[in-house]
Each structure stands twice: as C-alpha cells, then as structure tokens.
Amino acid sequence: MRTRRRNVSKDHLTISTRRSRRKKTSPNGIENSVQIPVDLIIEILLRLPAKSIATCRCVSKLWGSVICRQDFTELFLTRSLHRPQLLFSCKKDGNLFFFSSPQLQNPYENSSAISLMNFSLSSKISRPVNGLICFKRKETNETVTVICNPSTGHTLNLPKPMTSIGAMSFLVYEPVEKQFKVLLSYESEEHQVLTLGTGELSWRMIECSIPHIPGLSEICINGVLYYPAIDLSSGDYIIVCFDARSEKFRFITVMEDFIKAAHDGILINYNGKLASLVSERDCFVDGRSKTIELWVLQDAEKQEWSKLIYVLPAWWQDMVGTLDLRFVGVTRTNEIMLSPCYQTVPFDVFYFNIEKKTMISVAIQGMEAFQGHIVLTYLDHVENVKLLQNIF
Predict the structure, then answer these.
(1) 65 closest CA partner among 388, 392, 387
(2) Which positions ≥6 away from 273 have C-beta within 8 Å?
C-alpha cells in the first residue's frame, strides 16, 4: 500500500491524499505535492460552524494539529464574539437538550434552531460563559460536576470535591490570564474553587467572610461573578461578587426595591454593568404587564444604583396575549429580549426596543418536539472550538 505524506512545516501545510492530489513536476522529473499556506487553511476553517470543526479534527493528525493551535482557537472565539448565538436548553424526561440559533442582526427574519447535544441532568445549569456551561449530573451512584461545550458536544467530568452537599456550582472566566474557574458556594464561610488549564485538576478551599445562601441567578462580567444571596448572619439580601483573578469576595448591600429584581428576577450584563430586569410579576411578563424596571449598578465601589421605568405601550396586550414571557437580557442595541417559559408552536422570541417603544417577534423553528416543556433561552452565546482536554 502506498503511504500518504502529511507533513507540517512552519509556514506551509503539505497535504497529499490519494483521492485528490495536485502535483507539480520538477525539471528532474520528481513529483511534488502542492503546498497550501497555513493562513489559508485557517481562513477556510474559520468559516465553518463549530460542530463541523469538531468533526474535522478526526480527519487526520494534520488537521487536528492545525485546529488545536492556540492562534486558531482564539481567532475563532474572537469572530464568534461578533456573531453571537442564541442558546436554548429544553428539559424532557430527565434529559437536557441544547439548540442554537443565530442571534439575528435583522430580527425581521425567521430562524431555525440546530440541535447540539443531550444528556441526563440532576441540577440547574450555569449560564454560558465564553461558550462553556457547568452543571451536575448523576452517573451510577454519584453526582458529578461537569463542564460542557454545547457547540462541539464535548464534556469533561471534574474531580470529586471534598464535599458537594448543598453546594451551588458557578462557572467564571478570567479574561487576563484566560482561565476558567469553577466555584462551589456553600452555606458557610468556606468555599471551593478549581482552576482549569493548570495540569492536574484539584479543588482547594477559599474563605468567605460572610456565610450566605446563594440565589439561582448569576452573571459573569469582565472576570467577576455576581449572584444574589441572603446573609445568614443578618438575614439581609446581598449581591456576592467573586473576583476570578484574586479569588476574593466582596459584597453589595441592595436596597429593598432591588430585592425583587435581584432575587426573583434575572441578573444581566447591561453595557458592561451589573443590572436586572423586573416587572409586576418579578422575572416574568404577560399581556397584563404595565411596566418594566431596569436596575443598573452605576458604581460598585459607592454602591450607587439607578432605576429606569419603561411604561409598556397600549398594543402590548394584543401582541403578547396570554404568553408567559421570561426576561432573557438586553442586546447590544439596547433591546430587551423576552422568551416563552415553555415550548410553544410556533415558538417566538421578542425584541422590545426600549427607546422606540417597538417590538419585533422572531419565530424559532426546530424545537417542536418539546412542546409544553420548559425552555431556557440565553443571549450572546459564543462558539468555542477548543477541546476540553486541551483547555484543561
């Protein structure tokens, strides 16, 4: 059998296959394979969806080595930041299913959701951070903390912590060192943290000066994890701020009116600032809703907040009807995005322009099999093509 040549040089790729081979003949009659510049190969791969790139790794060691290059994965992530996706998670029969759809710049068009992966679930999932998700699932007789890349279908089981009883899992990304970390928050003064990408994975204890009960909403902004909590010593509502780089905690005391927004509503990223959306029905709106409140943390050090109240237009009830809509977040063009709590047919997401007082609905197709089941929608999801074992 004739051996195929696959060599990688510093500046060029030499690609030879039996099925497709372009040759040049030198003056002495020796045939040479055509060399394709690495930059051109990378440019071609950058145009593929993440799931296709994950498949291309299996073509050969040559393809795998190019795709796993750090410059390629960082380029792909950078481009993904400029073409964000909507990520949907659907729960059915004890399993969790992921779908993605383009986050349309022109929301007048319908969109189709693409199935990504599914697996068993035993706890809530964290909000996507730089394309990855953290959750817990049952395997045999134990519960395992898992990192998941919905775009590629890869998962990685984390080592068993010293104790996982009563722990809430949070994923955070530190942009300076480009590190992912997982925080296990307990109702005590001690928590556990694990840094990914440092060789052997191991949990370590860190101290927290205020024992607290974590809430269910969280957001990671510029390397800081924010989540609502109840101070066990005083009973006050607080916002916990965990700095991923220093691994230090600080706390923000919230005013009484913000309790509803932070604890029952949803924490969001509003132009790089911590914010929350709330209505008369907490984190939900329907046709009867009259206003939407947007709370923004203007100064974290001084703990200064601002509150904006948007009165909903008269046509709101006719357009929303009896749908129960959940706040998803605010887009980069200052549109409040809302999504149904359950899969409906048709399944429409809504963009409410807070300045123009206009709203557009976008039909998402492809999830009809989950009609009547819970759907969670995430804004600004990015595709990360790096293999989990390479990240960690």
Answers:
(1) 387
(2) 221, 296, 297, 298
Final residue belonging to a domain, choices 75, 94, 125:
75
Q: What is the pLDDT of residues 173-194, one digit of tens each?
A: 998 888 899 999 888 778 999 9
Distance CA 365, CA 349 (A): 11
pLDDT in tens, 82-97: 678 899 988 888 778 8
Domain membership flag for residue 1: no
Q: 288 lies in which domain range?
A: 83-391
Q: Is residue 127 part of a domain?
A: yes
Using the 3D structure, point to which of 20, 50, 75 is the last residue of a domain: 75
Give yes or no for residue 216 having a pLDDT over 60: yes
- Are 30 and 144 in a shared domain? no
Amino acid at 114: I
What six digits make up the tokens of 353?
Answer: 């322009």
**Which of these ranges, 117-121, 189-193, 279-283, 354-358, has the smallest mean pLDDT?**
117-121
Q: Is residue 255 part of a domain?
A: yes
- Of 129, 167, 165, nearest to 147 (Cα)? 129
Confidence of residue 9 (pLDDT cuts 50, 70, 90): very low
Q: Could you tell me which residues come within 8 angstroms of residue 22 by beta carbon, excluding any fewer than 6 positions away?
A: 33, 34
Does residue 216 belong to any structural domain of this protein? yes
Domain identity same for 109 and 59:
no
One-letter amino acid of 38: V
The residue with tokens 């990378």 is 42
pLDDT single digits (tens) 340-375? 989 888 899 999 998 888 999 888 888 888 888 889
Q: Residue 24: exposed, middle, or buried by beta-carbon count in 10 A (0-12, 13-18, 19+)?
A: exposed
Using DSSP bridges, classify how beta strands 347-353 and 358-365 pair: parallel, antiparallel or unpaired. antiparallel
Residue 283, domain CATH: 2.120.10.30
